[in-house]
Amino acid sequence: MLEMKRRFFLAGTAAILAAPSMSFAQSAPAKGGTLKISVDQAASVIHPLLTRVNPEYMITELLYSNLTRLKVDMSIEPDLAESWTANDALTEWTFKLRTGVTFHDGSAFTANDVVATFKAILDPATASPGRNNVGPIADIVAVDDATVLFKLSTAYADLPVSVAYTNARIIPASIATGDLKSLSTKAVGTGPFKLVSYEPDRLIVVERNEKYYDPARPYLDRVEVQVFPDISAEGSALISGNIDIISTIQPTEFLRIDGTDGIDALRTPSGQFCNINFGCDTAPFNDARVRKAIALTVDREAMVGFVTEGFGTTGNDTPLNPSYQFFKSVKQREANIEEAKKLLAEAGFPNGLEATLIASDRPAVRTQLAVALREMAKEAGITINVQTMPHATYLEQVWKKGSFYVGFYNMQPTPDGIFKLLYTSDAAWNETRWNNKDFDALVAEARGTTDEEKRTELYTKAQEIMNEEVPSIIPSFFDVLAAKRSWVQNFEAHPRASVFRLDYVSLSSDAPKRG
Amino acid sequence: MTEFMKRLLKTPQGAIGLGLVVLVLLIVVAGPLVAPHDPEKLAPLARYKGPSLTYWLGTDQYGRDIFSRLLIGARATVVMAVAATIVGTLIGALIGTASAFLGGRADELIMRTIDAVMSIPSLLFALLVVNLLGSSTVNALVAVAIAFAPGMARITRSVALSVRKQDYVNAAIARGESSAYIIRREMLPNVIAPIIVEMTIRVSFAVMLFATLSFLGLGAQPPAAEWGLMVSEARRYMHLSAGILIWPSVAIAIVAVGFNLLGDGLRDALNPRT
Amino acid sequence: MIVYTLFIVSLIVFAITQILPADAAVMMLGENATQEALDALRQTMGLDAPIWQQYFSWLWHVVQGDLGTSLRTGQPVGPVMFEALGRSLLLAVLSIGLMLVLAIPLGIIAAVRRGKIADMLVSLVSYAGVALPEFVTATIAVLVFADWMKWLPPTGYVPLTENFTAGLAHLVLPVCVISVILIAHVSRMVRSELVDVLHTDYIRAARLKGIPRREVLRRHALRNALLPTITIVALDVGYLLGGVIVVEEIFAIPGIGRQLIVAIQARDLPAIQAGVLIMAATYSIVNFIADILYAWLDKRIQYD
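The joint structure predicted for all components is written out below.
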């Protein structure tokens, strides 16, 4: 079943099984046409190694390729790598590369490009957000033109998944070791599309890469990514047929367009969540009792209604849920105001406490969560002042620096991915500064464990520690929502929310013709 | 005074305007006392309700009573707008009167500088100021006040210039009174009437500016029941329940139209010729 | 005059962007940058120099036409901003055009038929115009004319050069939303100016001489009443540029207002500086032209 499908990225079983362009479901997808897809945030950065948000990931996914890529069921399929194997200790991984692939500038793709790309990502000077997400890579060597060898610092079972990370797009060695900055304004990748024009706040246009390694794909001639600063306007544009796909739609807009003729509302369960981050090194949040007390005020069922309009599931203050592999649930936390008051008194706040919770305004659900928490916490004598700010301001001033704010995170491909992104001491965005050694050790041990049951057990223990210590409150998970016109075929909402697979999308004959 | 009131009430603008403004002020004073529900209390089971006997104007996205929120939010909305206008006017009036009194080079320099400041659109100016100070209600007030000051300075100056030529000012100068005294005691009182007219109309601009700042995420902070914030939040939910958007909009419109009408009525009453 | 204005504006803008809590070097390199990289960049950008030195070096570049490089996108700010300004000006010119076509006749009708039903109706329209903030009017307009009636495209921007009819169709709603408030303002001004003029002695005299009412209105009253309208419209450009910010945000028009919002929110200092400076310059130039036009027309009227 689902678990089985996910398993095949493991050493040995990885194969050409999942050769691309094998969609026999209907007649072969029609070629040609221009797809207009909307995003709700500017794609300010198109440098593939430096992107941070979903619209940016969408652009670089169109223009570049990874070694592997995530399918909609969260399992991986070959991209620039055709197959991969590991040694028994899971410390050395060998990837066989596709041959005859060329970059947009005509130069040939070889193992050297892979080596140079990963070295650039790992170089602190590059400041790539993906630096800690591509795996514990100690060294990478080109064995021959079509083979690379990753030498890891610790055993790591998830490497084939982690090289699919949104920042691990392969770039030419000449640029990776030369003028790396030049990719901020141009694109040289091996992806299915080539960059035509780039206006970060309005419109990004790409056209078919005729030399893409799969002659069948992409089906579209052209993709136009349009930026909509206003989500209501975005919904209107889809209803009027001015755009074909809304890449990410908010629950309120989803309810609005659902049921409209000619529009398909798309929904998939996911591990995406909004959380309340505590700076665990800052008073009063350095006391686990305070954090737990606040967590105990949350009515999680009601929260699912307030923040997702019902398009979500309850959370348990750990980032894992049934959408993840190796998941086993730990005891669900229920609201308990008496217990919360007791913990607060023990922590030295018998009369409650006051704190300012910061929420950026995009997506709007952050503010919704903050306001709802404010009212729920009131009952335990906790006064929360909500402060909103524009998203960009938040990113520059509060994110990773603040001690009490609302975060919003995509589902990661693996439990290791989300733990190493946010919660271990060496996490890429260690915003909670929780730094729990026991937790770190469990996550590290799981990395080198192939036995699935053992791994599940380790992650469950890690979850239990988190649930007890509450470095962040995770009240609910979101379903990933998207919407498309019915004339768009083969587009699905992806649980990861940052993967779009537009090279598989095609337009049916009743799509409007656009010059 | 009664004579003036009579003239004000004779014009339809004055009568309706005064009526609306009095109504709004009544809500400001008594609103929180008569509000039937807690404006911040969440009600997970009563979200997006239409008007009913319990909830006269329905409920919003958190199941909060819209009617109570409007009653309580009147203070945040109207008092802030009036306060910002008054502060802006005071700053402007001081600069304008001083400039007119000083005359010559100083006047020229002050007015040119005012022109320069005015060349930055007031919304943009307010945006910059709020960004500088951080978003909060008080900072928004400061921003709107600062944005209003140059325009008011200009108007005050032109009124003050005509006052400056009057005999009683010259008499004071002849008496050897200090500049500060003359500006404060002789000139300011006489420029006040036209300024009040301008101020009244500007209150509605201030309401708009506050609302727009909220729309851009830089105004009042949730869960405040400030009407501008209510409208801008409502835009996300309007497809689920139109009332969330409609009622605060109506409330804003009443304030804006009320103060505008009153301003026009005052102008007519103060200037009997037209 | 304009030079002085712009000098003051440049001082204000530079001061604000200096105090804004943002670190240009951190913004450029991102949050994962190392300390050494930051220090090196600060040095190359001249951020370690004294403030006044930074100001003059910035001003010197601006005078030469170099508005700097965006911290957010790494692209030069000038071309982006001027392209955006072009789009905003198109929006502004169309809005002023529509406004003049509607506001002046409305104002005249209201003044001539003062106290009558027509006057009341015009007042009603103008009060409705000032009753709601643009973002609400815009929301309602999109809801009614795009979502329900399906007469017009809801949002977005299509360059006129790319597709003229589609481009124009996309501009209808934003232009209407902006003009509504201007119409309210200007029609009221026209009305009160005209009412004033109609009460002056020489108009009474002209009427007493037996010149027909229509003739008096057209030859004498209107000219004098419409003259101040030029100044009003020029001053409204400031308001227009502000309103454009909101309207562009809702209708996803990539004009200078939207560029500025994005720049302000991202603390993209060079872009903020350039955007504010360009807006202020536009406003000053329009008012300068209006002054000249006013003086010229005023002279003509007096000699007439």
